[in-house]
Each structure stands twice: as C-alpha cells, then as structure tokens.
Amino acid sequence: MQTTLQIAANGLMLGALYACIAVGFSLVWGVLNVINMLHGSFIVLGGYMAFFAWRDLGVHPLVSLAVIAGLLFLLGWGLQYGIINRVVMQPVLTTLTLTFGLDMIVYNFMTLAFTATPRRIVLDLGNIEFLGVVMPVDRIVAMVLALALTGLLFAVLRSSKLGRAIVAVRMDRDAAALMGIRVDRIYAITFGIGALMAGACGSLLAVVYPVTSSMTGLFLGKAFVVCVIGGLGSVPGALIGGLSLGFIESAAGHWLGPQDAMTIGFVLMILLLMTKPTGLLGKQGYE
Amino acid sequence: MRSSAFFILSMLVLAAAPFIADNYVVRLCTFLCMYAALALSWNFIGGYAGYPSFATAGFFGLGAYAGALTQNLGFWLPLPWLFATVVVALFAAGLGFAILRMKGHYFAIGSISIVEILRLLASSWAQLTGGGDGLNVRILPGGPDYAGRVFLYSMMAVMIAAFITMLCVDRSRLGFGLRCIKQNEDAADMIGIDVTSYKTAAFTLSAMYCGTIGAIYASWVAYIDPSDAFSILLTLKVPVMTLLGGPGTVYGPILGAWVFVLLEEMIWAKFLEYNRAILGAVIVLLIFALPGGLLRMQWRRKWPSSVFGLPGLNRLKESR
C-alpha cells in the first residue's frame, strides 16, 4: 500500500513536470503546425540559466524564473519572426529540418558557453512525510509551480484577447486573417510562448534533477510522447498526457527499471499513433 | 547523357582510389559511397513518396547489430551482411504496415521514435548487444590496405545496387505511383493505385540498403555502440543530403551526399568546437537558398527572395 502511494506521489510529481515540458511544444505544434525540435534545447537553456544565476549571482531560482521566461520568449519570438515564419507553410520535412538545424546552432553555443557538466540547484528544503509517503519539499514546489504555469497558460488562452486570437488562428488560419488577426505576429508570439514555457520548466527541472545539455533529446522525446498520448494542441490534453506518462513511468520504473520505463512510453506512443492519433482527449479545437 | 557519363567517370575514380591514393583518401571514398547509398535509400520514401521519414538511423543501427552479431557467430563475411539486409527489410515491411497509415507530422514523429525505441532496446538488452558498453566485431584479417579495399568496394557495390534499383523504380509503375502519392494520396487511391502496398514497398526499399550499409559499417569500424549505431544526427543528415542534391531525382542523392561529406571533411571538421553549429547553419541555408536542391537550382536567377526579404504576412501567403 505504502509503495503504491509512493509510486503515485512520484508519478504525480513527474507528471506535472512532463505536462509543463509538453504544453509549449503542443501549443506550437497545434497552432503553427511545426514540430519544434528546439524545444529540448530551450528547456536545458532555461535550466542552465537558472543554475548560473543561482550559483554565480545568488539569485533564487523562483526569482530568476520570471527573467528566464522573458528572455526565452524573446529568443523564441525572434527565431519565429525572423526565420521560421518564412517557411512555416511548407511541408513538415522542411520545417522539422529547419528547426533541427536551428537546434544544432543553439545547442552548440549553449554547450560552449555552459559546458556539458550536469548542473543542479540544491535548495535543501527538507522532506515532508505524509501517510508514510516521503516527498522532498523542493520537488513539491516544482510540481506546484509547473501546474500553476500550465494553468496560467490555459487561463491566458481562454480569456485574454491574445489567447483568443491564438485559438482563432489554430482553428482557421485564413478566417482569422480575414478577421484582422496578424497571423505572422500570432505565430511569433505563440512560438515565443512555447519557448517561455520550456525555459520556465527548465529552471524548475534544475531544482529537481541535474540538467545537462545531452538531455535535450530526452526532453524532446518526452514532449513527443506526452503530446501524442494526450492529444495535440490543447492544455488539458498535455496535462492528461503528462500525468499519464508520469504514472506509467513511475510504476514501470519501480517494477521494471528506469530504462524500460522510457521504452514503454515510446511503445505506448507508437501504439496510440497507430490506433488513435488524436490522443486520449482527441479534440480538434484549442480549449 | 552528360550526367550518366559523369556518374560512370566518378565511379571509375572511386574504384581507382586504392591504387592511386593513401588510406585516408580510401577511407573518405568509403564514406562517400556509404552516405550516397543511404541518401539514395531515403530518396525512395522521402523523395518519391514524399513521406518525411526519419527512421534511417534505426535501419542502419538494426543492420549494424544484426550483421555484427552474426559475424561474431563466425559466419563467412558477406553472409552477415546479407542476413542484416533480410532482417531489416522484413522489419521495415512489417513496420511499414503499422506506421505508414500516419501522415505528415505524425509519420515524422513515429519514424523518429522508431530510432529511439531501437536505441533504448539495444542499450537495455545487454546480454545480446553488450548494452552501453558496445559490441566488438571481429576484425577482417589481411591488414589495413586489404580491409580498406574490401570495405570500399562493398560500400560501392551497395551504392551501385541502390542506384540501379532507383533507376528501375524511377522508370516503372512503382515510381509513377509513388510520385502520384506524393502529389495527392487520396487522388492516387481514387485512380486505382494500391497506396498501401506502394508505400510499404518504398519504405522497405528505403530500409533494405540501410541495413546492408549498417552491417558493412559495423564490420568496417569493428566496434558499435547504441548511440553510434542509432545516432539521431545520422537520421537527420541523410535527408539533408538528399534535399541538398534534389529529392525525387536519380542523381540528386549521390550529388548531395558527396557535396555534404566533402564539405564536412574539408571545412567544418576543422572547427571542432563549432562543428554542430556549422552543420546547423548549412541546414538553415539549404532550406532557404536551395529549396529544390542543387540539381533543381535555377542558375540564372539570383538568390530566392525568401532569403533576404522582410518577414510578414505577404511572405506567409507567397510561400504557400
């Protein structure tokens, strides 16, 4: 019983972080129809920036989070507005290859600037024990913040003017353009938001796990899996997908070992892609 | 006519390399043949059928492991290579039925995941594959000069086989059907093309030679590990080579692979720290400056306006 509870608690924590990892990726895929290969690098970049701000400048990660999110928004916005927008209508082969090329550039300079040493922010907030389940406080903080960020994005998309414009572009680009929405700007802002979520999530991850630049592919893989499990381009979808993957990996990691837990995630994804490519929630609109 | 003469001439030069140049050049020529064969293979599914497959490294790695394991059992050399070819072809045919129902983005993600799953399996199944420690393959006896020739000619044979297959496909019903599928799959289905079998055939063809090349590569370098065999970089490099030369053409993949490998060897291998960034920049430039590849480049026209124009909605509309 206690083991089950512990697995569930770990799954919940992992799932919240996965949801946060995937939600920006899912937004970009849903709205722009672009598979953003840069996403993993954005996450690691956020993590590194949080670490160095904490170690060298003594800035608390919760404070630097906002700055990092802003910087990554600018980076994402610039990349989309200046570069990706030019080919955004072309087939997936072009856009995917282009974002991969950009990812190599970002990755290279990131590794040169920060080196590939695993970095972790050690906050040492102690543990909480509840019903025999032990949870480190820093993980709980990261989990709550990840959920809060995801919820915030949901609220922005749902109720702000900008959010409605993004949803409109997702539903019908041409109609949105006719209604006076500047589609290219919405694309740039959406990509910026995707990068912002990745950066914020990266700095949360650095509090929980050691982050290193060789993990970019890992994070990107998680984003794929979560997106496909939960369904594309919706915040609740990413949340459901993230939590499912979190629980599955936590359980599989306990009984089979961590390596197989990852394989199971990917196999599940392929099976879902074959049978139900719209995901568990399977809605088309962005609500 | 001119291009076929050029092709034959370059084959002769490659074949003559061991007699006129040192081992470094022979090694480079082997790489030229290897990447040309991989790019030709990708052309079946990516160039003709227009499916964005990123599974090349999966087939390559599977072939490498299949070949290496049978070779270590003590089979006489071309046998493990043939075995790897058969294994990979069967694997791709089975897989094709499963993942070719997806389109566009889903297919791209699905095919990348195949590489990832195979890599994870190769690293976790340590009794068979040696896991993350990698796998040593028996070295071909006879000294480096002899081995260099054997591997150069083997790679070249696969490249020529892939090229001849491509010529046959290009001029056959299959090639025509695949081009139809690329333009409009539903319409192709409507006019009576058996879309599923055509796509599966293209996918299997695109995998088969990758398996052979993987097995030859394993024997050549005599050591493979999961991250080398199932490298995500390889899975992207190969489509980029084909795009560089001209996807859906017969000579494009070879030209693209050669230009790419030579550029890499001569230019950005010298900047070790910026290697990845330069490769990335080459990809970005390729997308903007050479959208149809070298073979389809319009030499008269100057830079396409998409490179230096201002971003904006007009641009979005124009590029559609």
How would you describe the overall organization of this protein?
The complex is a heterodimer of chains A (287) and B (320). The N and C termini of chain A lie far apart (37 Å). Chain A has one domain. In chain A, strands 1-2 form a two-stranded antiparallel ribbon. With 287 residues, chain A is mainly α. In chain A, helix 1 crosses helix 9 (216-230) and helix 5 (137-159) packs across helix 6 (161-171). Chain A is globular. Helix content of chain A is 75%, strand content 3%. Chain B has one domain (2-250): ABC transporter involved in vitamin B12 uptake, BtuC (Orthogonal Bundle). Chain B is built from 16 helices and two strands. Chain B is globular, with a radius of gyration of 20 Å. Helices cover 75% and strands 1% of the residues of chain B. Mean pLDDT of chain B is 86; it is low at 306-320. At the A-B interface, helix 4, helix 9 and helix 11 of A face helix 5, helix 12, helix 14 and helix 16 of B.
Would you spell out the secondary-structure blueprint of this structure?
The complex is a heterodimer of chains A (287) and B (320).
Chain A: H1 2-32, H2 39-56, H3 61-82, H4 92-114, E1 127-130, E2 133-136, H5 137-159, H6 161-171, H7 173-178, H8 183-208, H9 216-230, H10 235-255, H11 258-275
Antiparallel strand pairs in A: 1-2
Helix pairs in contact in A: 1-5, 1-8, 1-9, 1-10, 2-3, 2-4, 2-8, 2-9, 3-8, 5-6, 5-8, 6-8, 9-10, 9-11, 10-11
Chain B: H1 2-20, H2 23-48, H3 56-72, H4 78-99, H5 104-124, H6 126-129, E1 135-136, H7 143-171, H8 173-183, H9 185-190, H10 195-221, E2 223-224, H11 226-229, H12 232-245, H13 252-266, H14 275-289, H15 305-308, H16 313-318
Antiparallel strand pairs in B: 1-2
Helix pairs in contact in B: 1-7, 2-7, 2-10, 2-12, 2-13, 3-4, 3-5, 3-10, 4-10, 7-8, 7-10, 8-10, 12-13
